[in-house]
Amino acid sequence: MRLKPWQRFLQLESSSGIILFGMALMAMVWANSPLAFLQQRFVDTFLFIINDGLMAIFFLVVGLELKKAFISGQLSRFSEVALPLVAAFGGMLVPACVYWVVNRHDPVSVQGWTTPVATDIAFALAALSIFGKRVPAALKLFLLMLAIFDDLGAILVIAIFYTSGIECSFLMVAGFFLLLLYLFNVYSIRSLPLYLLAGVGLWLSLLYAGIHPTIAGVLLGLMVPGKGGKQARSPLHRLEAFLHPYVAYFIMPLFALANAGFDLHALSRDKWWLDTVVMGIALGLFLGKQIGVLGFSWLLTRLRLAKLPEKSTWLSFYGVAILCGIGFTMSLFLGTLSFQTEGSIYLAKVRLGVLLGSTLSGLVGVAVFFLASGQLNRRKRIG
User: Fold this and answer.
1) CATH number for region 5-44+77-161+255-382
2) What letter would DSSP give residue 65?
3) Of 87-91, 164-168, 219-223, which gets the smallest average pLDDT?
4) What are phi and psi of 334, to 5 degrees?
């Protein structure tokens, strides 16, 4: 049986989540071993390449997936878009507010408010994949679409809040490359090397303009043509099919290896369990995410502007809302940007908060969904 493109995407992300977990664990062990000095040397040498270079490829795939969703019609009707879009908005707004409330009195700590707003699709789908066919397909698709909107929101956050001293001359150069990509698209130029070459120019110009260069990835993804001839052979589909395995099995695990590890001894000298950064992130991910996703979704259904995904119940939907609190990759990325000038102790707090919030969300979300799947099975037997 031939799988639909989004089904193949889900399978790939689920298996990637298992590898991500292994690499995060390896980073933790490495950072607290006698070879920790090698880990620090690795981070010092490759952090820019990974976080500013390779993560641009990650965002390129996000841009390609977003455009493919529009072209395929998944995001063409308001009724299909409304629930994941509003849920993603609530799932970003409430965690940010939770973090702000906890850290509002500290001008340094409050900088990390963006950290708990993101959902890690790889980990969330990996947790959901435990239940196999007991998960309604529409519910999986809801989680995928929510994560796409979530990533888009994170991209806007990066573009707005993580710029430094805009250089207008380089910004104009970036505009030129963006216009060039647009013209390539308008005139149906299908040569991928031309798009990639212009994308590299866009990345460099944004870097020197003072705008985080990962934005170039999503802009390039939105410009790559997805129509013309057979869609499966379009530049968009070919590039996405080529890049996605490398992102899932190399770039994201490498990001985890470089960003997930921290020295536990550094935190043990402080009462880390009382630290507002750790508490703000952990509570934002675990409580803020589920309140935002579930609350905003419930409000939308009460207004009859949307309905729950097919074959799902409120309990199963709640389980998915909790799993949205697994913020690993993007939360680490945003947290690193928030405290990149504040020293390693803040980065250690970010990593601990993300680890606590994501782990708690994963465990409780799986437990709730286990209860929900049992409820569904009983209904089927009675029916």
Assistant:
1) 1.20.1530.10
2) H
3) 164-168
4) -65, -35
